[in-house]
Design goal:
By secondary structure, the protein is an alpha/beta fold. The protein has a single domain (24-179), classed as Glutaredoxin. It has helices spanning 2-22, 64-75, 97-107, 127-136, 168-179, and strands spanning 30-32, 39-41, 49-55, 80-86, 113-114, 146-149, 155-159. Keywords: Oxidoreductase, Peroxidase, Signal.
């Protein structure tokens, strides 16, 4: 019986190592979930196209949540994930996570993944946003910057805040990311 548990343990360890090896460097991290004690393991997005957006609850672009949710609903069956990362780097995020959650989940009906507020620019930026900026050549200059990541974990496009979720250029970049091979 001990031998069987030992073999099972080794198999689990090997499987975990294999999964970690397949997870692209950009996704080898975790963020705390909004309104939760749980974390988002970004490796769960391995093999999927990903749209990462830094958000804010009290910004002129906050209404983009509606369009982001529409994109998610339209393309999630094809393998698109959306990750919203609230940030107060531009002084427009609520001081209370409950208020942030209300804006996202209640006011705009967001069903895609949301993290707790994080820093997205400068030396204090979360590793995810440092890597997004490095790969794309641009860090967020305001709220609702958008990064399109292909199925291999590579940034294929970045868009500024003024780019609406229904912009044809953003949709084309999402199509390229969705059509990429995992």
């Amino acid at each position: 019986m001990k031998r069987l548990r030992c073999v099972a343990g080794l198999l689990c360890l090997a499987w975990g190592s294999l999964q970690a090896a397949e997870c692209p460097p950009l996704l080898q991290q975790q963020l705390p979930k909004l309104r939760s004690q749980e974390t988002l393991d970004l490796c769960q997005f391995t093999g999927k196209a990903l749209l990462v957006v830094n958000t804010a609850s009290h910004c002129g672009f906050t209404s983009q949540f509606k369009g982001l949710e529409a994109l998610y609903q339209e393309f999630r069956g094809e393998g698109l994930e959306v990750l919203g990362v609230p940030s107060d780097d531009f002084f427009q995020e609520a001081n209370d996570q409950e208020e942030t959650a209300t804006v996202c989940y209640v006011n705009y009906g967001v069903t895609f993944s949301m993290s707790q507020p994080q820093s997205v620019r400068g030396s204090q930026a979360t590793p995810l946003f440092r890597q997004l900026a490095e790969q794309s050549g641009t860090a967020p200059k305001w709220n609702f910057y958008k990064y399109v990541v292909d199925r291999q974990g590579q940034v294929v496009a970045a868009f500024n805040s003024k780019t609406a979720p229904d912009d044809p250029r953003l949709r084309e970049a999402l199509r390229r990311a969705l059509d990429s091979q995992p």
